[in-house]
Amino acid sequence: MPSESEIIRMIRSRSRRRCGPGVEVGIGDDAAVLKPDLGTDLLFCSDLSVEDIHFRTQWATHELIGRKAMAATISDIAAMGGEPRFALASVALPRGWAMGLIEQLFSGMFGLADDLGFSLVGGDTTASPGPIFIDTSAIGVCGRGRAIRRNNARPGDHVYVTGDLGGSGLGLTLLGQGFKLVDDSRPLDQLNSARQAAIMRHLAPAPRVQAGRMLGFEGLATAMIDISDGLATDLGHIAEDSNCGAVIHGELIPLAQALKDLSSTGMEIDSVKMALQSGEEYELAFCSPADNVDRIRNLSETLELPITRIGEIIRKPGLYIEQDGQTVSLDTRGFEHQI
Amino acid sequence: MPSESEIIRMIRSRSRRRCGPGVEVGIGDDAAVLKPDLGTDLLFCSDLSVEDIHFRTQWATHELIGRKAMAATISDIAAMGGEPRFALASVALPRGWAMGLIEQLFSGMFGLADDLGFSLVGGDTTASPGPIFIDTSAIGVCGRGRAIRRNNARPGDHVYVTGDLGGSGLGLTLLGQGFKLVDDSRPLDQLNSARQAAIMRHLAPAPRVQAGRMLGFEGLATAMIDISDGLATDLGHIAEDSNCGAVIHGELIPLAQALKDLSSTGMEIDSVKMALQSGEEYELAFCSPADNVDRIRNLSETLELPITRIGEIIRKPGLYIEQDGQTVSLDTRGFEHQI
Q1: Which of A99, B33, B133, B232 is 20 to 30 Å apart from B25, CA to CA?
Q2: CATH classification at residue B125
Q3: Cα separation of A80 and A78, whole Å?
Q4: Torsion angle defined by CA atoms of residues A287, A291, A295 and A297, in that order, rounded to the nearest 10 degrees
Q5: Is the CB of residue B313 less than 8 Å from the CB of residue B156?
Q6: Are residues B120 and B167 located together in one domain of the fold?
Q7: What value of ipTM does the predicted structure carry?
């Protein structure tokens, strides 16, 4: 069982001496010392991942667990139209963990930092008498006054989502049914490929940092949120905070390929419902005035990322779905963890 | 059992609409939006408090637990010579907690924020299948290049501590022996007063923000740390990171009054050892060149806070204590939580 200072030494050696631009002092002092960018606002947020609530060690590698715990916070920076710059990780680990496992956990976090260009500059480690806890916090930046909030959507705005939806919820369902992440490279048939794609979608989400930043930089979104609790819940937050409502066109929701593949091969699944309720997708849902259609299409092409118009903001409060010629009111409870 | 959004609503209503200077968007969006101060460096740190490792609900009110969890992080900002500005709190709570308890926990955190002039701007709440977890993170500021690190102490520097030591460790010992925090206002005899003082010292530490900030502002300290793991361990960090050693004069260590009172009334206790090993004191230990003696005395008077010279930095690595005419090598392990 490594001591706290042995863990810090390991993490310190794993982090580059001066992690990235703006890091004057990284891991190992009482606090990190950072040089803020000039002319920006700061974004500040955290996200807590708890074993057996948010993840299971039987389902994922420790590297994926660390990576996803960090991705959740970085996705919140993306959802404000910001760029992640610095992050901390506080982890509580059951006694008896070997250094190798701790290294894997941090390797996942450092890996995401390297991929997305931010620096992991500190945190805290302690023992846990119960489950694993990982709290990640991050500082991001955006242009002065350019943060994209939830409360500025206006009736007539189009509602968009990045990427596709339902994959994460499908992956979670499959993991719950006993399907496993396959970690070798044997070729898989179409059915098992689709299962693996869904499982990976759940275990290794990619925060939409570039899309969020560009939407913020170009001032294209009136309101934005990342889909962590499900499209219905999260778009519901935008509608409520903006004092308006939203209507989603069911047939326009971009469904994850794995969801289409598995529902076409007989898996009993309500794809649209799954796409509405699937949490931890970490796609962005945003609103944009109707006359931005061309600019959003261009952005989608530049980023090589599908950005799909799925509905509109309306004056009438509430969330509605239009499907098969009918419009029905939608329960906004998607994926909220009751405590 | 309140839902996550009910908790957020409660916290949101408790926080002032625009918490303090620099808070553009506080609690309730994906991330807080903050205006950084001009001409400062940022300090960034977190601290994790775990039930039954760092605190027990039988020993403290929920308000004190929340306050102390936040104080630990703010103390790290103080230890860099900084001023706390913004904080987050991520808490995992056992299912079944009533809103009243959650309010008390946050009330402790908001109380510290109000007292010390920083803003609690966000965080995360989730269920815990085990103990309570509270991770607090903070952004502080200090003048450009003025952060006080651990690695710049030089042979000949004097070693100082703020306040007095041993009270927190004594309080922890008493709590372990079954003494309780008394929450009514009945008058206590001297013995029980001393016990209560020690217990309160353990449960309600006061981060030395003003002292830390002034030491940073006036450039008086070459190295500084807050005493969270015990003087021996923490001064050991300064010595090691500065590639030198330190000698402490046992008789100069300022002992907590409660420690003196209780050891004089027959409690079997090695006061100096307690003062060396007592963790969670959140006093500051710092090093300063010998010619700053007068300025440090002035600072102590201005702040009405004892600042005591307890030793010197020496060339020879290691930590030593001079007591009763003998100099012995000191174990730097004070209060580190093994995991």
Answers
A1: B133
A2: 3.30.1330.10
A3: 5
A4: 70
A5: yes
A6: no
A7: 0.94
Give the end of a domain, one of A116, A143, A170.
Answer: A143
- The answer to whether residues A80 and A147 touch, using CB atoms and an 8 Å cutoff, is yes
Residue A54 amino acid letter: H
A54 and A178 in a common domain: no
Domain that holds residue A107: 4-143
Q: Does A336 touch chain B (CB under 8 A)?
A: yes
Q: B150 with B236: CB under 8 angstroms?
A: no
Query: What does the pLDDT look like over A189-240, one tens digit per residue?
Result: 889 999 999 999 999 999 999 999 999 999 999 999 999 999 999 999 999 9
Residues A139 and A31 in one domain: yes
Phi, psi dihedrals of residue A319, rounded to the nearest 5°: -125, 135
CB-based contacts of B17: which residues, under 8 Å, 6+ apart?
A: B26
DSSP label of B328: E
Residues of A in contact with B128 (CB under 8 A): 50, 53, 130-131, 133
Cβ distance B130 to A129 less than 8 Å, yes or no, reads yes
Nearest-by-Cβ selection for A133 from B25, B133, B336: B133
Do residues B210 and B99 share a domain? no
In total, the C-beta contacts within 8 angstroms joining chain A to chain B are 249
Answer yes or no: do B307 and B230 share one domain: yes
Q: How far apart are CA B264 and CA B258, in angstroms?
A: 10
Residue ending a domain, choose from A111, A143, A175: A143
Q: Tell me the CATH number at B311.
A: 3.90.650.10
In a domain, B151, yes or no: no
What distances in angstroms separate CA A33 from CA A324, B22, B72, B130, one per listed residue? 56, 19, 18, 34
Residue of A nearest to B45 (CA): A31
pLDDT tens digits for range B85-127: 999 999 999 988 888 889 999 999 999 999 999 999 999 999 9
Binary contact (B79, A41; C-beta < 8 A) = no
Do A189 and A87 fall within a single domain? no
When divided into structural domains, chain A yields a total of 2
